[in-house]
Amino acid sequence: MRKTKPQDRQILTNTMTYLLSIIVFLPLFFLLIFCFVPSQQSKIFKMGSVAVTFIQFVLSLVAYLVLPKGEQALIGITDMATLGLVEKYTWIDVQIGQLGRFKIDYFLGIDGLNAALFVLSTFVLWIGSVSSWEIQEKEKGYFSLYMLLSTSVTGCFVALDFFLFFLFFEFMLLPMYFLIGLWGGKRREYAAVKFFIYTFLGSIFILIVLIGLYLSTQSFDMLAMTQLANFRPDTVFHPANDFTLFSFSTREWAFILLFLGFIIKLPAVPMHTWLPDAHVEAPTPISVVLAGILLKVGGYGLIRTAYCIFPEIAFQFSFYVALIGVLSMLYGAFVALGQTNLKRMIAYSSVSHMGFILLGLASATVEGINGAIYQLFSHGILSSMLFLCAGVIYSRTHHLEMENYRGLASKMPQYAVLVTLAFFASLGLPTFSGFIGELMVFLGAFEAGAVGTLPLWLPMLSIFTLLIGAGYFLWTLQKMFFGKFSVKESIRVEALTDLTIREKLMLVTLGVLAVVFGLFPSLILNVSNSSVEYLVKILQAK
C-alpha cells in the first residue's frame, strides 16, 4: 500500500476544514454554470443535478462517519469546542451608531442535534433530483431553482449563527414557491401563494425573536445565546427583566413566537392547512423534498432555538407543547382516514407523524428527545417513499383518486410490493425505522407522565394514533391493490406498466434504508445521544 505523503495529508486536512462549506455551496457553484448552458441542453441540467446532489450526499456521509462517537463525545449546543466539525469566520464586523459593534459570523457546525438530519437532507435532495428526470419543460429554470433550494436546505441544518440560519431559512421560500407555482398542478398558484404566506408569517415571528436576542447578547452566535451569562442586564430577554405583556414575560413571548414560527414549517395543528394543498399541487420531486426535508427544518429549528436558548420556558410549557402534539397526531390521522386523494391522505399522515416530534420534545427526557430526532429522520425516508409511490401512479394516469383503481397488484406487482412495504413501515411495524422513533417517543412521554412532568392521559390518548394509522394505510392498500382489477373508464389500462429501473432504484433504496435503520438504530443514536443528554440536563435543571 502506498504511503500517504505529507502534502496529501495536508490536502485531506484542508478538505475536512472546509467540508461543510463545500457541501452547502457546491449546488450554488453549479447553478452559476447552468446559467451559461443553452436551455435546449436538458440532459446536462438533469445529469448535473443528479451528480451534484450525489456528491453532496457522499461528502455529508464522510462528514458523518468522521464525527466522534460515544459518551460525551459530541455535545455542541453551548460549546464550540465540543462540535464535531466546525467552520467559524468573521463575516461582517462594523460599528453602527448606538448599536455599537454589529458582528455576524460565518459559523457552520455539526453536533448530535443536526448530524443525522444533515445527511438526510443531502440524501433526499439526491432522490428528488433522480425523480426530477421526468420534468419535460423549462428544465433550465427548474434545475437552477433546485440547485438554489439544495444550498438553502443544507445550509439551514449546519448554520449556527442565527442570522446565517435565518438567511438560509428565508432563501428556501423562493425556489419552493416557484417550483410549486410553475411546475405544479391545476391549482398550483393558489397552493404556492398559501405556502409562501404561511411560511413567511412564521419567518416574521422568528425574526422578531432574532432581533431581540441580538439586542440582548450583541451576538448572533446560537451557542452563545444558550448561556445566560451572555445576556446583558436590563435587556429585553434577560431573565431579570420584569416586563410582561398579557401576563407573559419577554422570554415566554420569545419561546411562543419561535414555537409558532417553527410549527408552521413542521407543521402542527392548527398551522397545518397549507401542507395538503402544497403536496397535492406540487410535482412529485418537490413533494418528496417538501415532506422529506423542509418539514424537518421546522422540527430542527424548534430544538436548536426554542429549546436550547429558552430551556426553562420550554420545560414550563411542556404540557401545551405535548397537547398540540397529541392533537396533531389524532387530528391528522382522523382526517387522513377520510381522504379519497392519495397525495392528500399522505399529507395528512405527515401532519399526524409530526405530532410525535412535539410529544417527544415535551417529555424533556433522553428517550423522548432522541425519539423526536429519530422520528424526524425516519419520516424523511418514509414520506419520501410514500410520495414517490403516489408519483408513480400519477405519472401514468394523471389521477390520484383512490376509487379510480382496484386490484392494481395484478397489473403492477413490483409496485404493489414496494407500496405495501412503505405503508407498513409508515404505520410503525417493528423492524422498520418508524417503529423505533415512535417507540422512543412513547417511552419518553410515559416516563414524563410517571414523574408528573406531563399528565399521563396525554401519552395514553396518543397511542390511538397507531390504530387509526393502521386503518387509513390498510384501507388504502385494500381499496387500490387487492380484489378484481378495474380502473376508471378514462384511464388507459395499457398505461399501467410496472416500475421502471429509475423508479426501482429510488424506491428500493428507500425501502432498504427503512429496514436498516429499523434494525440498527445505533447508527443514529450513537451520534445524537450525548447532545440529547446534555440538552435534557439543561431542561430539567430549570
Write the SSE topology.
Blueprint: H1 6-17, H2 19-34, H3 42-65, E1 85-96, E2 100-110, H4 115-131, H5 139-158, H6 162-171, H7 173-183, H8 188-217, E3 244-245, E4 248-249, H9 250-265, H10 274-281, H11 284-309, H12 311-316, H13 318-337, H14 342-363, H15 366-397, E5 405-406, H16 413-426, H17 433-451, H18 457-462, H19 464-481, E6 486-487, H20 501-519, H21 522-540
Antiparallel strand pairs: 1-2, 3-4, 5-6
Helix pairs in contact: 2-3, 2-5, 3-4, 3-5, 4-5, 4-11, 4-15, 5-6, 5-7, 6-8, 7-8, 8-9, 8-10, 9-11, 10-14, 11-14, 11-15, 13-14, 13-19, 14-15, 14-17, 14-19, 15-16, 15-17, 15-20, 15-21, 16-19, 16-20, 17-20
Plain-language structure description:
By secondary structure, the protein is mainly alpha-helical. It has helices spanning 6-17, 19-34, 42-65, 115-131, 139-158, 162-171, 173-183, 188-217, 250-265, 274-281, 284-309, 311-316, 318-337, 342-363, 366-397, 413-426, 433-451, 457-462, 464-481, 501-519, 522-540, and strands at 85-96, 100-110, 244-245, 248-249, 405-406, 486-487. The strands form three sheets. It has a two-stranded antiparallel ribbon. It has a two-stranded antiparallel ribbon with strand order 3-4. Strands 5-6 form a two-stranded antiparallel sheet. Helix 9 (250-265) runs antiparallel to helix 11 (284-309). It is globular.
